[in-house]
Amino acid sequence: MSTRAQKWLVSGPPLVYLLVFFAIPTLIMLLASFQYPGEYGGLAPLFGTGDPDELSGLTFESYQRFFGDAIYLGLFFKSFLYATATTLFCLLLAYPLALLITRSPKKYRDLLVLLVILPFWSNFLIRIYAWMIILGPQSLFAKGFNGFVGLFGIGPLPLLFSPIAVLIGLVYVHLPFMVLPLYANLEKHDPALLDAAQDLGASSWRRFWRITFPLSLPGVYAGSALVFIPALGIFAIPDILGGTDGILVGNLIKQQFLDSRDWPFGSVLSMILTLLAILFVGLAAWFARRK
Amino acid sequence: MALLEIRNVTRRFGDFTAVDDVSLSIGAAEFFTLLGPSGCGKTTLLRMIAGFDQPDGGQILLDGRDMAGVPPEGRNIHTVFQSYALFPHMTVEQNIAFPLQMAKCPDDQIKPRVREALEDVSLQGKEKRYPNELSGGQKQRVALARALVNRPKLLLLDEPLAALDAKLKERMQLELISLQKEIGVTFVYVTHDQEEALALSHRIAVMNLGRVEQLDQPAQIYSFPKNRFVADFIGECNILECGVATNVDGVATLELDGLGSVQATGANGATPGSRGALALRPEKIAIARDLPPTDCVNRFNGKVHDYLYTGDVTLYIVEVQSGHRLEVMLPNNAVGRSSKFFEPGDAVQVGWRDDAGHYLAD
Most CB within 10 Å of its CB: which of A74, B93, B141, B337? Predict the structure, then answer.
């Protein structure tokens, strides 16, 4: 077998997979975003029957609707803020954790990594519903929290169905996606570099900021992309923990497809979300490749 | 006063004593080498001097100040690591500036000092390169420049040339000697390579099993090894077990096991009736089909068993009458010579002068 044939054999299946399950659906979505909504939901036909009352063909109507009302851009901005905050909190929590795993004795490392991915063993929705109980007004956690803020004359604050609940849920769900790339990066660092830095006069604080952190940046970018992008489009967590005011872009898209049955407008929102995601992946990759 | 004073330093790992009651005193501007096989404790000792490890007993004093409890970043000692440990995300310039920044050197002084350090190791023009764009020898020089840029009192070098090929190694050795002479910083050099130690050092401490076996100048260590370990570890050596028959003012008659009597001068430690060994370097033994009668007092007939041709010299393994084998070195310096003098099986005579060997008392 020629090496060319071997290459196609190896890269063919994933290419076909991406074509069928990513490229073609995205193109269908792109087309749908320019179509009229159907009378009873779904899409109006591309080619009409000639009936003057029937809508058919292509239109910018849904795009005009999107850019015509600030509420939609506002929702994108709100989602962007949530995704950014999620990424930052995940980074703040995951970095020390990944560093701790890297610096622990070799025999415990695999076990600790296993503990990080252990939550994946139970269903995502069940874990989010569990947070409903933890954050609910009768829970020990909520009582303790309100008892604490009560000392400062604040509260009692409802935790569940609040932005805090959504943020807690988002950070909780995405944390492993930040820990794993960070750990994969930190684990490869040559310990001799830290010895050398210390030998040359660097305190532990400066060893971290001058050596460990800059060398871990590719892991930081990879983890941030893995957290930011899904957090931008997620709908289940705001649905369950966010209450009526808690919706994000993901919820709006879901509504358009399942409740309002306005597929073209749902497609417009999806296309813009996809474009934003590609933009952020591109940015992260560009940052990571820079020296 | 000595710059570095090591007093009765001991380091144990469980049951294993890595460094066993070592005392050394290293002077200013000295090129000092810790030489020994792997596991002899030389690297452990180096790590304790750098501050990465703490002795279980004894003291390390730098300039008279006890270093106990002083972390590596607080010692005026820098290390050149075997792997170089250059910071991969920094350019050559940034790597060399690092210790200056750590020492809070004013910004306007950093650039000229980095340039000076690069000149010391002849690496001008490579400022903007990253470590992965440099050859092994260049990385080595950057590591040296980085460790020397803020003029530490002491520079520790942990097998720094081990990763270089033979030709480059030789050139770097010469450069290390002149660099050390030029800047006058004390070097403590760790190696298992005895040729390197002999070539570079003012003094060598030969270590084995955590102890210093001999501490002296290279020529003294080579010519007058103190015991069998040193004789065997440094260079090639025939170690011939013997008993002492007589000794008159250091001129001894030794009974070599299985070979017979030989004369040896300078054998002051040889008490008649005691046992010891005669250490005899291969290049001190003459070999010929017929040795001229005047040359050597000690002579034996033998047969060439095998040889190793290494270009400049040939090492012959000669089986002497009684089945004992001697290593004999012969320089290939005859005019027009292109191959060896003797073939395996050739009958030869070997012999040495009475002052060729060195007596080792048991």
Answer: B141
Identify the pLDDT of residue A54: 74
* Per-position DSSP letters for A192-205, written without gaps between them: HHHHHHHHTT--HH
Least Cα distance to B35 among B282, B228, B211 occurs for B211
Q: Are A249 and A269 in contact (CB under 8 A)?
A: yes
| Residue A250: closest CA among A79, A65, A30, A74 | A79
- Select from B90, B98, B159 the residue whose CB has the most chain A CBs within 10 Å, as the one to mutate to test that interface: B98
Please report which confidence band the pLDDT of residue B280 belongs to, taking 50, 70 and 90 as the band edges. Answer: very high
Cross-sheet strand order for the sheet of B251-256: B260-264, B251-256, B238-248, B275-280, B358-361
Could B50 and A192 be called an inter-chain contact, meaning their C-beta atoms sit closer than 8 Å? no
- Do residues A89 and A168 make contact, with C-beta atoms less than 8 angstroms apart? no
Whether A195 sits inside 8 A of B88 (CB atoms) is no
Rounded distance between C-alpha atoms, residue B275 and residue B256, angstroms = 10
Query: Between chains, do A192 and B81 touch, taking CB under 8 Å as contact?
Result: yes
Q: What is the C-alpha to C-alpha distance for residues A222 and A233, in angstroms, rounded to an integer?
A: 18
pLDDT tier at A158 (50, 70, 90 boundaries)?
Answer: confident
Q: What is the pLDDT of residue A113?
A: 93
Global model pTM greater than 0.90? no
* Tens-digit pLDDT profile for residues B45-102: 999 999 999 999 999 999 999 999 999 999 999 999 999 999 999 999 999 999 999 9
User: What end-to-end distance do the CA atoms of chain B give, in Å?
Assistant: 35
* H/E segment holding residue B280: strand B275-280
Per the DSSP assignment, residues forming a β-bridge with B188 are: B32, B156
Sketch out chain B's domains with CATH numbers.
4-231 (3.40.50.300), 236-361 (2.40.50.100)
Which of A199, A207, A211, A287 is the best residue to mutate to test the B interface, defined by the most B CB atoms within 10 Å of its own CB? A199
For CA atoms B74, B77, B80, B83, the dihedral sign is negative
Single-letter code of the amino acid located at B309:
Y
Q: Does A220 touch chain B (CB under 8 A)?
A: no
Topology annotation, domain A66-289: MetI-like fold (1.10.3720)
The 3-state DSSP class for residue B123 equals coil
A128 φ/ψ sector (left φ>0, alpha ψ -120 to 50, else beta): alpha
pLDDT digits (tens, 9 = 90+) for B161-183: 988 888 888 999 999 999 999 99
Enumerate the domain spans of chain A: 66-289
Peptide bond before residue A137 is cis, with ω within 30 degrees of 0: no
First-last CA distance in chain A: 40
Q: Using the 8-state DSSP alphabet, how is residue A120 labeled? A: G
pLDDT of residue A45: 82
